[in-house]
Every structure is written in structure tokens, then in C-alpha cells.
């Protein structure tokens, strides 16, 4: 058995990694660590992880994390670099934080206000990388020792739009995205606007006007797919549900592109993917359908009157949007079958 | 007391009209009628309307509706024209259906597949009509005998964008709107995708690609405000809540417009409005804050990187989005103070 | 106009009092005060109270609260006595806290761990007091200067069971109550289990085994109605909704009581009440039907096999369960019509 | 591989069986059948079952169902007997309907209004059967060819109370249960009260007064555990969530039983169970913690003042409450490890 440690196991992302590892046939759970919750039983922090309820959270230290084959980091931004540097080059380190996602140090500084830690291979295997009709990010991940897991919104948006941009069916210069997320995407921090009384029955936007930190990550992914600079107007909204992202993504139909031919780009891109699915024409994604699974459901329509293509993607922000991608990347890094242990059906209704 | 009848009282819109009329100091409730529910007690159909629980739903006929000062029609599309024609020119008829909203018979036919019944004064008092810096639709409603109540999405979207378009701060040619609605907007029809088990915990889009019937109504309103043809990419989504619309509306910042000056258009447009409120800078609308009220909460941000202005509006689809607008219009038509009897605070949390 | 101050206006109960006062024809809102939120605008704390958004929260001091005709206290337990003592005997003080509800100093000490502040007239006008077939608590409230507003659970449970106990149709010795409450009943405190991510999609009990502080208040009310000591097994549960209490209350059918005759006790008790309604046979209360209203919906069934009567009551914990009762009591104390300004229809769906 | 057919695959129970079988290492999915949905693709009916989306629903006939090792029936009540009779005695038939659960033909007739089809081994392995300190229903299920899967409420209630009744710590004569269920328990039928607009934000009871069909099943289970006739006052309520049951169960503390000794009965009963867990003292079940899993979380408290023990159990009505139990029973019948393929962690938050 491969032995895994999970740092930051008390948060929602850490909890979801543990849930997935419990069902993984080749990975066993070693150390589980936390910050403020260190010393507590997992049963008190994550009562849904019944088989782990007697496991105690340790402090997040190099000592505790050492001696595992793979270490999952689910830490607040800025905490991964120092730890990873001490973990040994042979250990697979999967970072769920943002620290190593961006290539541009300037973009990092603008959005995160600290100095850039560096760039690791970006953990979105299905992302078209634009260097050929079927070139995908997967190529960079096999046997990698360090992988940066994508953000949840960038996962939905990038997989929604990349095929059309890579195929030249969409123009790169005026992409507009409005996405709704469940509250678990905001984490477990005690903030008044995240109280159940405030979120139930309510929709609200946040980070409006291009200031959300996932904006440069989305633009980086889409620009690579397009082979050109993509600018995105991105508005996230908070929805009254615990999990799920629904990203409604629009881009202008490229001049000269026939509406009827647009769909082929997505069909071709995802025909062989295990987790990314273009739904049958006319069927639209629902976040409930991917809940708890590693799936991405995608659908699109061409609005010829408005001159735009609308692509909608649904993911579970905690599964494919974070922990599922982390396990998927670990599988690739460890030389396992990419889909090993990952849920392929949503929990609905 | 002014005497009102409500036709289609068994639906959600009809029920909300009755809820508002119960609190109206100058209107008393006369006949309440229905189609399939005729003969039932209101207490069985709308148990929340406690004081009306002994009232029995009559058939929707001209005879029953005659003899009232004002008749509210909350009927399926296509049923208003024949009834209204027989109600007498002196009776105020407020139609919550779509039949008389559109000016273009072609647009009607394209989206509704029937022949156009005509056009009534459009019941959105606060809408800028573009013929001057403060010209508003209110001018067409005082003492009107026939009024077409706007659709719920058009209410949120039009009030969100009209000030910027009228002021020339936004370009009219590439408006993109993504809106989330509570399930009551879809009515009380028994459709599988509206079951609680299906909608709770789930977000999903529908009517994607410019096919939703509110599209031409939005374009009509915005084109009038802009004094130019506005094209909209409109994507509605269904959110896990019973009430509320959150419309995220974006348009390109007009060339030569200074970002800092944009906000003034909204401040000027709504400074004196009782129901439409530009929130203080940095505070964003939440649908829960307008629940059950006739308010519209609006906020905007300029995204200079993306070259777009993002305007977000929240309304209660059943109140300001339908029944509240209907009562507000009735007040104007009847010569009452426009705000009479309308709730000015939301029911939160 | 009568002038009212609201102390503790930043919480959910305080906010609801303000919402109701905004619609009250004879009361105007004077000082609004808070603890930690003092200095903030109401618009930041309660964005749903649109007309009050420019009002600033003052500190909760005697000076600020003085000079009003009525003062509503919505403070944490233990803070009312000192304030009330300094407010002048002619001022109407309506306390939404628990401090003055209990008659037994022992019960207070057992459940609240502090010394007993005293007992004020108990603000549940519709409660049968057992001293005669129609004797109700209302008699103690007219022109009272100090009133203790009941707790939310005791409101639902007491109004559900009192008629049967007073009529001798139910035995007092083995009452079992299980109640579900929306999260606003737990207040605005930042506790992990109240996060939206934790409560949405989940039901859970708390305070199990007779330890919830509303237990002695329920027993006090029911014992008075029964004219005998009533013991209650009370289990509250947290439901995934912001507002509402559904109390399922059972007691044993008194020996010799005919099942068919049981209902009459409730019919007689509530026939003339404006807010407490026994629903038509076969129709069961739903919390949504009373949302935002001052109504209590009640229904019952006799289970002859089990030898128990099941009575279910629905209230909005913030309205009739707190703020609505407070305004109702203020109306009585001020000599106004008891129902003045109070919503008689729920906001549904 | 063992080959399974699922009849009634278009409903929620059938869909959940398929979800679980997708993760089962030794069972492959053969025929999937339906009534009104026959001919449709599974992708249209259960879009969350992504890997099965191309599978087409066949008619529910003996021909289609024949030739499988195990047949799961998820049919409306009354449809199982005729089918099962033709399926061959060597085929394992797991019936999720009520038809074969009750031993008493009289109870069946009283609650279901049809004639009794018979009694199959009852599929609740962990149920104490009272014939000894550790005698459980599991003994009747190994290698059985016909198994009746328990109802969802009876699962939660029986596992909650059986240990205390079997140990004599609870008196059997006045059990009171109030349970909250998610809406999926009511199935996919198109009924107005199940619309999302009606259930979100609302709690309501149904089947009050001993008329719910699960009442005799609960009494049968508890009577067997107690070795005495148990009478239950059972009130189910509908909660605003898609999945989950929270059962609050109370019984009187048996005379002479010491409160401190009560807990031992549950500890002993479930110490070795894989799916039924007595939580650590002070931690209470939440339905979200068992969502999508086959777990039952149980906790109890003794209320000495009221003379009652309160036991709360949480299950997912579709998993352990139906489909999980079905697969667990199939495992036993097929000679597999009982826990094979069943999720042991909930999907939270």
C-alpha cells in the first residue's frame, strides 16, 4: 500500500481528501495534521468520516509528514512552500493551495500580495494546452513529484471554455463568466455572511469587478488553450447549497465560424475523458448530478442573435474542484491508473 | 374602499397579490377566481393567507370579475386579451401575464408562437425611457386603465442596466446577463425538475442560448433606455430557494468613459426612488434582503482589466418582480400614492 | 405617534422588531442601540431594513434609551434587569430575553446558573390560565408597564397543548415534545455548527435530555393551564431553514375522554383569536405558511392505538416567537388594538 | 462477476441501488427496467449516474429480469409478489417494497388495504431479535433467496430503540417517535406539496395519529426486540432537504433501572457493527454526516426529570434506509462480505 499524509485535514478540502482516500484501493491514510485543531479527534471535526473517528490530528510539522509516499497539503495560502521544501524530492507533494498555480510572479503579487513561491506542474489533466489538437496538461503530470491542484472556479471555467478557444471557435478577447458556488468553497472560517441563517434562501455576489483571486488562474489556463491572451470578466456568486459550482461562461463566436460546427470542438476534446462529459444536446448540467463525484458536466449553446456561445459546466467544488483533482493527480504521479478510487457517479437526489 | 378582483388567484403570482392587498389600506378584496382550482377554499390553496381561508375560488369569468374598480389578471399567457376586452374601459386592468408587454408583433410571434394581442403601457415606473435625463416610464402610468406588468427577470435586468445605457456609459452592443431565480418563478406546475428533491442543493441553467421569452422584453427596455438597439446574451438559472432573483449584468464600458464617473448615472437615476436602491459602495445585493418586499437592491463595479461594468440587482420575483409591481401600478392608475400598502423592508434572515 | 427604542437592535430579534415597527401605524422608531455593533449603520447590519439604512446604532445605555414611550429589550440573558430598573416606571418595557419569564427562582438558577431577577407579566395573551374556561393571560397584560416576552419554543408548545390540558382531555404527567427550529433561533453568534455548509441539508438535535432552557418555561405554562404539575420531555432539533418552528407535541389521552370530543377544547380556546388558528380538520401546519407573520397554525389528531393526542403547531420563531409577540404585548400595554401593525399573512411560497 | 438486475430503476430507490452497484467490486449491472419510463436512457432519468447514461430502461417483465443472479425490486407496493414468484427459487430477490415485511396479515390489511402477499426474511442484519443477548436478525439472512428490505423510518427507529428494549432498560408501552425525513423519501411522484417552492424553508408533519404505514413495521421490530408488545406514537415530518432521516425516539425508563447503566445496552449491541455507531457521549447525530453512506449514527440521553430516555438516530433514507440495506442484504445472501462495496463515510459538508 502507498502511504499518504494529509496536512490541513481539519478543513473542508482536507476532509474531502480523507473521504476519497477511504475508498482508494492502493492508498492508506497515514498522518493527519491540523493547525488550531491539532490534538482533536477526527470524529469531532469530521463526524462523517466514521471509520477515522478515533484518529487524532497531529501538528502540521515536517517530522509528522515525513516518511509518507505522498503528502497532500490543504493549507491556507502561503504555507506550502516551506513545508514542501523539506519533504524530500522523492515524495509526491500535492498542493491544494494556490501557491504554485500561477506562472506569472506579477499576477501572483497583484492578487495575493506576497512574493511568488514558484510554479509547479498544474494539476488539470484534461486541460487543452494548445500545442496541438489533442495536447493536454496530463502530459506534464505523469510521475511528477510536485503538483499544484487547480482552484475550484478555474476547474469549471477552464474545462468549459478551453475546447472552443483551442479550436478557434471562440474569440479570446471578451470572455464573460458568472459562476455560482456552494458555501463550502468559502471554507470553514467563522464569518457572519456564511452563517446558515444568512445563506439559506439567498443568492449574492462577491469579489465583483475582476478582483477574485481565481481570475488570473482562469486567464492563464484559457490563454494557454487559446494561444492568445484571454481576458475574463469573472463574477462569483454564493448560492444556498453546501457544495457545487455552476459556471456560466460566454465568449463571442469567432468571425466566420459556423454555429453548427462549434460543438465538435468539445466532442473531440472530451470524447475519451473519464471525468469530463459533454452532455447530450439539450440536457444541461445540474450541480446535484456531480455532487461527491469527480465528474464535470458540460453543455453549450450558440446564441446567434447575441453572437455568443454559452458554455455551462458543473463540478463539485470539493471533489473535482479540489480533493478529487488532488487524488487524480496523485494517481498520475504515482503511476496508478488515473481514475483509481475516484467516484464516477454523483450522489443525487 | 376600492374593490379589487384577482383572476388566477390560485397561482403563486395571484397569491402574492392577495398577500399584498391584505395589507393595503385603500383596497378591499372582492372576487378571487381560478381555473382548475375553482370551487376550492383559499385556505386549501394558499394556507399562508390566513384571513382569507374561508374565501372560495370562483370560475374566471367576465361576470364574476365585473363590478370591481380594479382587476388583477394572473393568468397563463394568452388568456388576458379576451377577458380584458369585456371588462369595460373604466375598469383598471393590471395584467401580470406577458400578453401586452411587447411592442413588436414579430418578437411576440417569434418567442410566443401566437398572434400578438397588442401593447399596453408598460408597468415599470422607475425605468428610464431615454427621452431626457430623468424621463421615466412612470409618466405613462398615471390614471392608465390598462397596464402590462413586467416580467420578473426584465425587472431586475432593466433596472440594473438602464441608467448606464441611458447615460452612454455602457455600450449597447454586447450585454451579457446571467441571472439566478428561485423556483417560484417557474410557477406551481407539476414538473419533475421542480420537485424539492431535484432543486435543493442544486443550481442549473435553462433556456440557454437566447431562447428564454424574457429576452425580447429585456432588449426592448434596454433599447429604449439606450436610444439604440441593445442585444443581450441572457442565461437564466434555477437556484435552490423559493423566491428571489439575482441578476448579474455586464456591459462594456463605453470608449472614453472614465471609470470613476460611471456610478453617477445610477445615483442620479434612483436618488428619489422609493423602491430602487443603489447600495453604498462595496455592499452587494442579496436576494434575502429584498424577500417579500417591493425593493430592488443594485450595486456595480467597473472591471477596467476586462473593460466591463458589472451591475448586480436583487429582487423578489413574486413581489417587485410581479405582484408588487402590479399593486404599485394599480396605485398609479387609481391616483393613490405610488407606495401605498407596499412592503419596504425585506423578511430576513 | 408613540416613540419606541430598540436595545440590542443588531441581533435577529432586534432586527425583526424594527421590521414590524416599520409597518406599525402608531409607533415611530427612536433610538436603536447595540453592543459590539454600536457605531455601525443599520444598513450594514440589517440590509433588509432598507428605510432605516442610514440610522446609526448607538451604545446601549440608559441615557440613549430614556425618553421613549416604549423600550424593547433584545439583549443577551442577564442584561435586562439593570437597564429596566433605571427606565422609569411609566415607560413600557418589553423584554425579549428570558430574565423575567420564570416564576420559580429555583428553576431559574438550575437552568441559567445566575440569581433570579424577578418575574414580569408573561406576554402570551392567548395562553389559557386555567382559572376558568376562557381565562387567558391577556388579562394580565393590558396597561402593564413591564412584560416578559415568551421564548420561541414555549410559544409553539404552550399554545399547542394548553387547551387540551385545561379541558382535562390530556393527562399532565407524560408530555413529549420534539420541535424543529430554523437557525435564526440560535442567533447570530459565530459558531461552527451554524455555518451554512453545516446546516444546509442536515437535521440534528441539541439540548437533549431535558437540559434546554425552555423546558421550565414550557412546564410553567402547561402546569398553569392544567392546574397540575406537568412534566415534559422536550427535544429541540435544528432544521435547514432560516426561520420557523414546528412543534410536535404529544400527551396521553385522559382516561374516559372520548376521542371525538377532544377537538372541541381547541375550537373553543381559539375561536376568537386573531393569531392562533386551529386549521380545518386534515390540514397540517407548515412553517412556511406562518413565515414573517404573527400567526400560529395548530392541528391535532387522536391516536387511539397509542393512547396519545398529537398536536402540532407552527410559528415563525422571530415573529410570533419573539418580535411579533413583543409588538403584540406593546399594543396591549399601550392601550392600542392588540393586532395593530402585525402581519396576518405568511410570506409563502 | 455476479450479475444483477434492477427493476424500478427510474425511481429514487432504484437510482440509489445503481449508484451503489457501480462501486461494487463483485456485482455487475445487467438489466435495468422501469414502468412509465421504459424506453428512456438512464442518462435522461438519472443524469448523476454518468457511467450508465447510455443504458436504456427496459420494461419490467419476467423475461427481462430472468438470467441474473440477483434481482433488486424497487417497485410500488403490491407489484413484487407476482414477479418474484416467476423468478426462480435460486435467484436472490431483494424487495425494497413493503409487500413482504409484515408478519401479520391483519396489520397489512389495515394499513395497505390489500391482501397480504406473505413474509420474507427481514433485511435488517443489526436488529436485535430478543432471543438472547446478541441474537440478531443477521442470522436469518445468510444465503437467503428472498429478503424484504426494511422501510426507511423503521430502520432509524428500530436500530435506535431495540437495544434498550431488549435489555429491559426501556418500558415497551408508551414509545413516542417524531422523525424528520428528506423529500426523496416521498419519491418522485408529482405532488404539489413536494414542489421545491413548497418544501424549501418549511417543516410540516404528515400521516399524524398513527396512520403512517411504517407504524406496524416499527412495532413489529420493537416488539420482537422487547419480547413484549410495543405500541408507538409515530409522527413523521417532511424537512427541507433531499435526503436523510433524523428519528427522535423516546421511551420511559424502566422502573428500577439506573440512569448511568442505560448506555451499556447500546454499547454492547453495536460494538462490532460496521454500519451502526453509537457516537461518543455528548456528540449528536446529524443527517449530513451519514449522507450517501450506509451508516447509522446513534446517541442517547436519559432525562430523569421526565422519566424518559431519548434516543436519536440519523440515516440516509435512500442508502441505509433503502438501497444500502438492499445491497448489504444481497451481500449476505450471496455469501459475500457483508460490507462489500458499501460507502462507510458520509458526503459532508
Automatic annotation (TrEMBL), chains A, B, C, D:
Coiled coil: none annotated. Keywords: Amino-acid biosynthesis, Arginine biosynthesis, Cytoplasm, NADP, Oxidoreductase. The active site is at 152. It catalyses: N-acetyl-L-glutamate 5-semialdehyde + phosphate + NADP(+) = N-acetyl-L-glutamyl 5-phosphate + NADPH + H(+). It is an enzyme of class 1 (oxidoreductase). Pfam families: Semialdhyde_dh, Semialdhyde_dhC_1. PROSITE patterns: ARGC (PS01224). CDD domains: AGPR_1_actinobacAGPR_like, AGPR_1_C. The keyword NADP applies. Pathway: Amino-acid biosynthesis; L-arginine biosynthesis; N(2)-acetyl-L-ornithine from L-glutamate: step 3/4. It comes from the Bacteria. Belongs to the NAGSA dehydrogenase family. Type 1 subfamily. NCBIfam families: argC. This is N-acetyl-gamma-glutamyl-phosphate reductase. It comes from Intrasporangium calvum. The gene is argC.
